[in-house]
Specification:
alpha/beta, Alkaline Phosphatase, subunit A, 2 domains, eight-stranded mixed sheet, seven-stranded mixed sheet, 16 helices
């Protein structure tokens, strides 16, 4: 049951509406330049166009320091976006927490000291597994370099890297550039004849290791085969693997590169994970880290795939990925505790709430929204619904589960019991990541169509709706130079952007009850953190004092 210590108080000017408060998060639908590479602007969106003029509308910051990331050059992402939306205030996110721990040196205490002692006592290998990227969404290579250098300074003789290529949070087809940096770094260490630091395996993140929400365990299985068992297509180096795969499949994305292993002159894998070894997962974001953690730590009850061999290793993550499930049991940096989220306050008030999304974003409206908590605050008043995502490339069915998600929201509204309803439409982000412009346009149009169905239901119920996004993506689908001009390849084709954007996101607020409110004019740098107070007020309560201020001014 929820903690009863902190309760919501009735708002002096805004009474509760007859119908529910509905929050719609259009994942990856930001406000772009409205040019030929802006799939949101290019899409036919009559519903959003109408709301732009007949609802309360403004834009919000959804990246950088506004969502707790280290700098304003850091892209927002779905994890931090939903964290901040649900928490109502800004707190240090994964990357910033790690950088603070590196600066202070606290990261080298506790678990790190244990794993180094284990490695040295067993004269075993230290393995680093994670995303080869400086995108700052799931990982950052400077963290990996810091770990490698610390292992070297503490006398670890053998290190193996299992690197997943990105192509989503960084420019696509750049994996060879990151590999070159890493190989140069390892080469410098290997000038010490007592050191043997090598890349052992890899693969694209969307095919290897980094599944989420158990959408497709085969992805993790491929990683297990490559990283642990040493099974897969062998190459003399990671760079050879990438060059060969690109030559065989023209235009293949870094995120879609098949799993591979690095082999020696006898065609034997150079870095299987064996009994007595130490394994560190250096990704800091949790959603795509949980399943590989479970594969290493779960006993005979594990059913994700046939592991064949489960080595006894010392396993640690960069951070705690799931506090309720205690995954992983060992981690280098403790995340900031997030309490008193919107859902927690609503649960204490005894109000019913409903959360739904398709699999690809289900954890975002539950786990991340609730401050990295898996369990409900009050199972008597909370209902969660997961709509299974299709297991096909997202650009092949860019509408994804927009229609089914709208069905679920409409059913919840018509049921008349839910006071707060939240949902996520995944298309703008998941299809945006493919770099397929025409598909991204269709994805945005499918979200607009879903909104066209939901709005009349909210109106009929006398409720109100808040529509926003967690970050940008489909709003900017081309790589640009420092001046913002689009970049083109040798064939004159635009270089597709597959990462998030730094653009602001929209917020539309439409109240169908008899209340009257306007947007405040004194919050110039409003961000996602201001949504929570706004939702609480729309429900008829005063926002908690620790929250960022509301966007609304009540008459």
């Amino acid at each position: 049951m929820p903690n009863e210590n902190r309760q919501l108080q009735a708002h002096p000017k805004a009474s509760a509406p007859p119908g529910p408060v509905v929050l719609v998060i259009m994942d990856g639908v930001g406000v772009g330049n409205e040019d030929a590479f802006d799939a949101v602007h290019s899409a036919r969106t009559p519903t959003l166009d109408r709301l732009r003029t007949d609802s309360l509308y403004r834009t919000l910051l959804a990246h950088g320091t506004a969502v707790g990331l280290p700098t304003d050059a850091d892209m927002g992402n779905s994890e931090v976006g939903h964290n901040i939306l649900g928490a109502g205030r800004i707190f240090d996110q994964g990357a910033k927490s790690i950088e603070k721990a590196l600066e202070s040196g606290t990261i080298w205490q506790g678990v790190w000291a244990e794993l180094i002692a284990h490695t040295q006592a067993a004269s075993s290998c230290l393995h680093f597994v994670g995303l080869m990227s400086d995108g700052g969404v799931h990982s950052n290579m400077k963290h990996l370099f810091a770990l490698i250098d610390q292992a070297h300074s503490e006398g670890v003789s053998k290190v193996r890297l299992h690197l997943l290529s990105d192509g989503r949070d960084v420019p696509d087809h750049s994996a060879h550039e990151y590999l070159a940096q890493i190989e140069a770094h390892l080469a410098a260490i290997n000038t010490d004849s007592t050191r043997d630091y090598r890349i052992a395996s890899g693969g694209g993140r969307m095919l290897t290791t980094m599944d989420r929400y158990e959408a497709d365990w085969r992805i993790v299985e491929r990683g297990w085969h490559a990283h642990v068992l040493g099974r897969g297509r062998g190459f003399t180096s990671a760079l050879e693997a990438i060059k060969t795969q690109r030559a065989e499949q023209a235009g293949i994305s870094d995120q879609g590169l098949p799993a591979y292993i690095v082999v020696d002159a006898e065609q034997q894998p150079v870095g299987t994970i064996d009994d007595g070894d130490t394994v560190v997962l250096f990704n800091f974001r949790g959603d795509r880290a949980l399943q590989i953690c479970q594969a290493f730590s779960a006993g005979d009850e594990f059913s994700g795939f046939e592991r064949h061999r489960v080595p006894e290793v010392y396993f640690a993550g960069m951070m705690l990925y799931d506090g309720d499930l205690n995954i992983p049991q060992k981690y280098l940096v403790a995340p900031e505790t997030v309490t008193d989220t919107v859902s927690e306050y609503i649960a204490r008030a005894g109000l019913s709430q409903f959360a739904c999304a398709e699999t690809q974003k289900y954890g975002h409206v539950t786990f991340f929204w609730n401050g990295n908590r898996s369990d409900k605050f009050d199972s008597n008043t909370e209902t969660y619904l997961e709509i299974p995502s299709d297991r096909v490339p997202f650009e092949e069915r860019p509408w994804m589960k927009s229609a089914e998600t709208a069905d679920a929201v409409i059913d919840a509204i018509r049921g008349g019991k839910q006071r707060f309803i939240r949902t996520n439409f995944a298309g703008g982000d998941m299809v945006g990541h493919t770099g397929a412009f025409a598909a991204a346009v269709l994805a945005v149009e499918s979200v607009d169509l879903a909104l066209a169905r939901i709005l009349p239901e909210v109106e009929a119920a006398g409720g109100c709706i808040v529509i926003t996004a967690d970050h940008g993506n489909a709003d900017d689908m081309v790589e640009r130079d420092k001046s913002g001009a689009p970049l083109f390849n040798e064939a004159g084709q635009p270089r597709a952007r597959t990462s998030h954007s730094l653009n602001r996101v929209p917020v539309y607020i439409k109240d169908y009850s008899a209340r009257t409110a306007s947007l405040r004019s004194d919050i110039n740098q409003a961000g996602l953190s201001n949504i929570a107070s706004t939702l609480i007020e729309l429900l008829g309560y005063s926002a908690p004092g620790e929250y960022e201020p509301t966007l609304l001014k009540w008459s």
